[in-house]
Request: fold
Amino acid sequence: MGKDGEDRTLFGPTLQIAQEGQILTLPKATAFGPNGKGFLVVADQFLPWQSQQREVVGVRVMPTEREWVVDKPFSSVAEKGGFGGIGSNGSDFALAAWEQRLEDGGCQLLARFAIP
Amino acid sequence: MGKILPETAGEYFGLSEAPRHQSVAGVISRRKFLKYAFGAGAAGAGVLLARTLGVSLETVEAAPPIPPPPDEEIVPPPCRKDEICIEEPKPIETLNLGETFPISDKASETRGASIAFRATDKRAVADQKALVAWHQLDHIPHYDKNGQLIYYEGVYHLYSEVVQKGKEPSKKVLLAEIKLSEEKEERAKQLPMRVYVYEEEQQEKRRQAELNQNAEGGSLILVRPESGWTLNPDTLWGFVWAWTTGNEKGWPRVGGWRISDEGEARGGMITVEESEHTYHQLYPSVAKKRDGAILVGWQEDENTPEYEFMFRIKGQIFNQEGKSNGSSFEILRKEDASLQHPQLVWVEKLNRFLLTCMDPRWIGGQPRVRLLGQWLFGDGKPEGDSFLVSKDFRDKSNHSLAVNAQGECLEAWGNRRRSLWTVDFG
Reply:
């Protein structure tokens, strides 16, 4: 299967799905979409202009005839949220959950089902 | 025209954070959007603007379009020299997210949400049940005999819950409880009362102080649940690590539970194998084969001067009854690197597991990370040598690996150093 450290190009080219200035961490990827195609990726986004502020963002990555593209973003996942996770049934459903900061300083785990 | 501006402004402010979510179709500053919204709104294109803000199409369609007056040409307002004018963005189709609903009760913090669907079970796909596992920090009030609040005790709870679309969530199941050690609790009691009397503005500081205490002592902390369904429709796995220090038995260990279809834990915690030299077992990941067998992978070091914090990736196979078919074994090790954060998936069409992990090193005085991959046979043993997933040593944050029904794998990671987020796939 190749020598240690050798780039065997088993993985395709890197696809940049964020803009300069965004700081996205803790990505969670999962199978998604009709017939199991594509992936959903959610991640925490640090907001450097707001100390300790986070939010949860996400996109869908889908194949085309020639390349993979990021075809759909989430309209909104969570503001003031973080530590998000996502799962999918591999067919037509996904569930995203994340920690949500409450106004009084507490936290709560919130969730949403996502539909393609 | 008098109604257009307020409606447009309302759509904008109602989704005022939307531009920050447009990580694909171009992030445009709020200032630009605001100018554009009001400028174009005055020209009667309010509906189109709502789409450019990333509103879901469903929401947009709900707003009735306002047709321009007959024979009136729509001319965008001219740009002033001190403004940045942008071209009209194409409408953005966004993913349809349902209503937000709570899973946990209110807590001081909730972390590590891990979600699993029974992807390969047709019945599960139909009933759309998902398991969510998480941990949360709760502060339990303690009172004296006069009913006076003395202090709050920090307790970590690990829960799981079955969630089903269109139905009330099942009762959450408490899997584990981790209290501060008695020593820490005594220290907490000795601190000035004012620190522990509940005051809203003090709560966060106190929580941070408490965490710092733990960090200094290395005594407690967070769990990161990993969960996955098995093919057996009434069993599923949640894996978690947690620890307290102070004695040899307190080092972090990887373990899991069998959980019923209704979310109930079946039996006690099942742990992976350890040796007399096992020190830390951290960051478990689970993947299941089609026959229901589960491979658990984690990072582990040894309580010896030579291998302390020199993590290697270990694994162990369990059947769907939770019984191990053998001993734990080494999946990947580098003599000159401490491998961390394994991620596992089962690739059905190749009849192989795929492992990816982080390979952090110090280069030029800076911490750098690259990502390694390793194919594994069905018994979890490595096939050939490891290979590079990321092609350089840039500083990287956590990563995640997924596989879809076509057997395509996707690896995602954050790149802090360049403030970019990149995705690899293959």
